[in-house]
Amino acid sequence: MNPGTGGAVATAGLELATPPVKPSSLFRRSLRLWRTRIGVALVLILVLLAIFGPYLAPHSPDAFIGAPNSSPGGKAVLGTDYLGQDVLSRFLYGGRSILFMAIIATGIGLIAGVAIGLIAAYSRNAVDDVLMRGMDVIMAFPQIMLALVAVTVIGAHAWVIVAAIALTTAPRVARVTRGTAQPVVERDFVAATEAMGVPRWRILTGELLPNILGPLMVESSLRLTYSIGVIAALAFLGLSPNPNSANWGTMINENEIALSVQPWGVVIPVIALAALTMGTGLMGDGIARTAAGIDRARGEE
Amino acid sequence: MSTAPAAVGTAVSVRNLDIVIASTGTPVVQDVSFDIARGEIVGVVGESGSGKTTIGLALLGHARRGLRISGGSVLLGDDDVLALGDEERRKLRGSVVSYVPQDPASSLNPALRIGIQLREALQAHATGGEDHAARIAEMMREVALPDDPKFLKRYPHELSGGQQQRVGLAMAFANRPRLIVLDEPTTGLDVTTQAHVLSTVRELATLHDVAALYVSHDLAVVATLARRVAVMYAGRIVEVGDADDLFESSGHPYTRRLIGAIPRLTGGRSLLGIPGHAPSPGQRPKGCAFSPRCSLRIEECDAALPELRPIAPDHSARCIRAELVITQQRGIAGDPIEMPSDAEGAMPALRLTNVTASYGKFEVVHSVTLDLAARECVALVGESGSGKTTTARSVAGLHRGWTGTIKLGNEELQPSARSRSDDARRQIQYIFQNPYGSLNPRRTVGETIAQPLKVFGTATGRDADLRVGEMLERVSLTGAYANRYPDQLSGGERQRVAIARALVCEPTVLICDEVTSALDVSVQAAIVELLGNLQRDLGLAMLFVTHNLPLVRSIAQRVAVMSNGSIVELGETAQVLSNPTVEYTQQLLSDTPSLEVAAAAADADVALGDPPADPVGT
Questions:
Q1: B 111-140: CB under 8 A from A
Q2: Using alpha carbons only, how large is chain A's radius of gyration in Å?
Q3: What ipTM describes this predicted complex?
Q4: Nearest-CA neighbor of A106 among A163, A158, A151?
Q5: Could you give the 3-state DSSP secondary structure of residue B267?
Q6: Which candidate, B362, B368, B510, B496, places its Cα nearest to that of B435?
Q7: Band of residue B148 on the pLDDT scale cut at 50, 70, 90
Q8: CB–CB contact B49 A193 (8 Å)
Q9: Cα separations (Å) of B273 from A155, A259, B254, B483, B486?
Q10: Which residue in A has a C-alpha nearest to residue B451's C-alpha?
């Protein structure tokens, strides 16, 4: 009962009229934060680099242009790798496949996860239990391990990697979706649409989904980061669709032996991966903070 | 207000208190001064946004995040609370001043047994060596709770709301403070529980000579509890004085309108809402803040801020026309309502026969039988847990677990809305209690109102837009609202939108589930007025679910009183409220705080009475 310990603050309630806030898109509002801007800038630079890199590359990624592990200078701006190929060119070629696979895998996982999560949250019965316990079973396996098993058994095809990552992304997304959708399901506007006889799927997409987009955006940026990490890790272990083609993960693996002599072959892809994951992380964090900030402002003012 | 030194016997004296928004310096509370004597309860009344809670917290030297106390003093004896350092102020809290917040559930630690929490309250300011166990037992007896060790071992969630609030009171009184600030501690409690908690507050304040500030939006509660009342409007005290005098001959038009908005137990009459909004901080006019909403406004009102000036002994008002306001006092009650009961003999629009509803194994509604004629409004009243909302939800098909028959005209209804015909779903419309939850925050008002048109295929495109505009005007909003989002609307406006969404379906039965309980009294009056007019104009059958007995007078022809899942009394409104035949109804009526009862009690100077025997299931 000591009012100094926060009880007073927590229960003070809504005394002042809240100034009207136009619910402009959460993302646009989150751009007011520096962390979001930095995150978006990082992600944008790397995505553009991955997409347009091959057109900017001075050499073919497979062309031998000098002695192996030679230092920067001459034809090779960032030196050559363990086979004497241009590090810069391989770097500019190496982002595309990782990014494409990650985006497709995360996209599939996201759609499946959101669908499962929404159905589970809305059903409020045994369906909920069956779906979510099924998700728990998949989640019991670490993402990288499941991907490794799939790739080892079936082979390192692009679709196997994408499928394995989508399969492991879905339950994590489903859990977040269900958790955030559950309180929305209990709100009266959902009951109001039920009383009108609106079809179930329209309630899911029209009433529930728009109200959980904030947390979902945060979750999807986080999931994309993890997907990139797993694909790069698989490539590092030599498990990429084409082990000879340029790939940031493969580059790190190939050139780590020469780290002391010619660090660029390892450092550049590592920086790129770090910047990409940091960027998506900052972006997600910015959105989450903005969402929390809006809630707090409403509770307090 | 005078800045004279406090009189002898004064426990707290607040002088020229100013509170601003820290970032902008916009005033929130301005120039508030009042005294509280020892053993006295002063009520602070105001609607949301008036600054009443802000003042309550300022007495503890606390400002909510984003606010700053920018001037004035709060004298507790010789100490100015506002001038103390953080550490000294912390020591003061809980021992010299204490606070009882609105929601007892969130002020108690859910993970600790209540005995331990009471002990903590004592230990925080203990000098050591006291016998805590004996003190705790004494505290429990004071608030009429059992003092046995078994009860003290309970966790907060094992107590009822009323018991939780009593524990809160026990903790607040634990260190025999000089001042207690109570911030709407009975909001959310049933009338019977509220009556018990209020009498406990009154006794403890008298017994221990504690000064109490009771912050509330409920005039009737304040009238029953406080000897002196301050009415807040837009951050300033607009009227302050002896409670009886203030309520009987109020000198400020706002107080007068506020009283006019309160439903009375005696005499059915229409409620009068107050048009317009209270100005938000930063948009307050230079002159009288109430003048844009005032029917007695003259030019001088806007010229300068009216002084708070004495208009009677121990009664001041901030209005330049206070004398005129007092003489016009008699006109404030609304017109008596003619409740047309041409319902006689007509086919019931809705007929419930032996409806029994349950949640899983628990039967919460037992064999309810009720007819609702076309053009008739029946109120379903009862305390929380009486099954009134479950009954209403069963009718609307929102609760599926019921048996018995519900007939809409000639059609027998299926349990769930989903399995009913489109026509049945259209004809029965439901308005929810909480307007903050019943509108999808991601849809504009226009989209929300147009949704049923789309679902039932009534109108599309341009036609739908026209219908939306029509409905908005019908509920006294303008077409411009169609493009707004719910969080740009006030609670009353949201409830109007929810009503418009129901009306657009052209229903024959309208179910209103506690539709005004989340709203301020002046807004409540306006909504009830609107619903009454709509019901009469459109010839709707209306089921009005509420826990607010006086409100029933202003809207319903018949009342059904529910208790523990059964209808215990059913009859004409006037009959049931004036001459209740069932003990339960009598009890409910006598526990309901009202201005008349408060006045009568003051006249008779009724003794405070014994604490009620512990109602362990309140």
A1: 117, 121, 124
A2: 24
A3: 0.75
A4: A163
A5: coil
A6: B496
A7: confident
A8: no
A9: 74, 79, 11, 26, 22
A10: A193
